[in-house]
Each structure stands twice: as C-alpha cells, then as structure tokens.
Amino acid sequence: FTYTPPALTLTNFTPASSPDSGGVLVTFTGTGFNSDMVISFDGTPCTGLTVITSTSARCTTPALAAGMYD
Predict the structure, then answer these.
(1) Whole-angstrom Cα distance, residue 15 to residue 35?
(2) What pLDDT score does 4 carry?
C-alpha cells in the first residue's frame, strides 16, 4: 500500500509584495495544502505557517536582502 498525497497547487497569494524587513502576513490560496508543507521565500521559510484548510494557508514573510524574487 502506497499513499501519494495530492499535488500542491498555488493559485493566488496576497499581498503581492513585502518590504525587505519582512513581517507581512501573506494569505495563500490553492489546493492540496497540508500540515507537512513548507512555504519559503528565496529559500528562507516563512514564520507562523497556519494551514487553515486544504485550500488556504497563511504565514509571515521573513526578512530578505533587497531585491525582486519569484
């Protein structure tokens, strides 16, 4: 028996930007969210990740060096 969880998809997040100092609460929508997932910004995990439902989560952005990130 092998269980394969559904793939995570991200359909939206708000707000779309954060100051370099971080500290902004971001809400994510999509599918397949679960308590094992990790959200990171340029490899730095966010803090306070809360999975609200399988389609909604939120966390606080970390501080990052100045610049644009995808």
Answers:
(1) 22
(2) 78
Q: Is the peptide bond before 19 cis (omega within 30 degrees of 0)?
A: no
Query: 16 burial class (0-12, 13-18, 19+ CB within 10 angstroms)?
Result: exposed
Classify burial at 46, counting beta carbons within 10 Å of its beta carbon; exposed 0-12, middle 13-18, buried 19 or more. Answer: buried
pTM for the model stands at 0.82
Tokens of 41: 């910004």
Give the contacts of 11 (CB within 8 A, at least 6 positions apart): 29, 30, 31
Residue 10, pLDDT above cutoff 80? yes
Helix and strand tally (H, E) in the chain?
A: 0, 6
